[in-house]
């Protein structure tokens, strides 16, 4: 699979480097990826001042291949790059031939110029969403999501979300174990889903270096709608239940249960913002009814640990709808 990055003047280095590292690391593990970098000029200036080399002739592409458009560092889409018509036609032709096109951040504007956003769901950086919607009124711009896939047009939010998107594409092609292997090698613990908020708790509570807590968070992140007994989380993390809870609180400010509930609430609110009833959203995230969801939403999501009873801090079972209960 060829992954071709279109380098345009003023591109953000991380918009490019994050996804490129994902596919490069996957290739190091034996997955068949071949990276290429193309542009309209042989030397492309980045937003950070580094000049990047690019091929000015595109490789021959098939329907299996992916074209990636990194975003640029300008505060408005109107001031961004305007590729030549021939470049936009290449993007459109690749998609029309069955290929996939993807963008990070303001790269979505280039896909819009190529006519690829019309009548499709898409997203971009939260500071640019309104402008993107104005520029392409036939597009359906999704708010507060990390990435969107719609008929082989894949768009992602700002900067680091390109890593999440690239990991998702690896997982789709080779399975979640392959993506997890790549992510761990890159020391990327927050493997967020496309519908995760751009300010999700999955990101807010990852600023620590405790490996056991990261392993527990990985399990909660991937299965927060299901009952997750504390003992099982602890066993998978290689520590005792009491040690995991203590380290979890010290690292995130939350108990494992409160962390799981926060993810459930965020997901339920996303579903309700897209038309689901409170009852349907509650069921979708693992609550038996909407009462528990309403009760938890009335609390402050990131309540300090001091407000959590001492018995809950050390003896929580991260169970389903019923809230905290003492472990045996």
Verbal overview:
The protein has 328 residues and is of the alpha/beta class. It folds into two domains: 2-180, Class I glutamine amidotransferase (GATase) domain (Rossmann fold); 200-315, Arc Repressor Mutant, subunit A, CATH 1.10.10.60. The chain contains 14 helices and ten strands. Strands 2-1-5-6-10-9 form a six-stranded mixed β-sheet, with helices on both faces. Strand 3 (43-45) and strand 4 (51-53) form a beta hairpin. Helix 8 packs across helix 9 (230-237). It is globular, with a radius of gyration of 21 Å. The relative contact order is 0.09.
Please describe the structure with a list of short key phrases separated by commas or semicolons.
two-stranded antiparallel ribbon, disordered C terminus, alpha/beta, 12% strand, Arc Repressor Mutant, subunit A, HTH_AraC, six-stranded mixed beta sheet, transcription regulation, 10 strands, 328 residues
């Amino acid at each position: 699979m060829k992954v071709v990055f279109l380098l345009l003047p003023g591109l953000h280095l991380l918009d490019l480097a994050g996804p490129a590292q994902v596919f490069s690391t996957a290739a190091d593990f034996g997955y068949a990826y071949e990276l290429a970098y193309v542009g309209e000029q042989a030397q492309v200036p980045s937003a950070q001042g580094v000049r990047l080399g690019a091929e000015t002739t595109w490789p021959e592409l098939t329907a299996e291949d992916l074209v990636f458009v990194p975003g640029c560092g300008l505060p408005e889409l109107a001031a961004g790059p305007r590729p030549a018509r021939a470049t936009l036609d290449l993007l459109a032709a690749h998609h029309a031939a069955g290929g996939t096109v993807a963008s990070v951040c303001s790269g979505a504007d280039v896909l819009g110029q190529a006519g690829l956003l019309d009548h499709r769901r898409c997203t971009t950086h939260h500071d640019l969403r309104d402008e993107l919607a104005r520029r392409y009124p036939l597009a359906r711009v999704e708010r507060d999501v990390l990435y969107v896939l719609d008929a082989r047009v894949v768009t992602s939010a700002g900067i680091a979300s390109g890593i999440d998107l690239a990991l998702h594409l690896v997982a789709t092609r080779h399975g979640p174990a392959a993506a997890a292997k790549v992510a761990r090698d890159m020391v990327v613990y927050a493997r967020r889903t496309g519908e995760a908020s751009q300010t999700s708790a999955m990101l807010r509570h990852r600023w620590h270096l405790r490996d056991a807590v990261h392993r527990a968070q990985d399990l909660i992140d991937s299965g927060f709608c299901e009952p997750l007994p504390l003992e099982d989380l602890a066993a998978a993390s290689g520590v005792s239940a009491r040690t995991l809870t203590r380290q979890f609180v010290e690292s995130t400010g939350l108990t494992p249960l409160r962390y799981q509930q926060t993810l459930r609430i965020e997901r339920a609110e996303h579903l309700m913002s897209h038309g689901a009833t409170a009852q349907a959203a509650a069921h979708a995230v693992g609550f038996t009814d909407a009462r528990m969801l309403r009760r938890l939403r009335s609390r402050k999501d990131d309540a300090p640990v001091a407000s959590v009873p001492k018995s809950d801090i050390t003896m929580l079972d991260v169970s389903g709808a019923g809230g905290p209960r003492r472990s045996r």
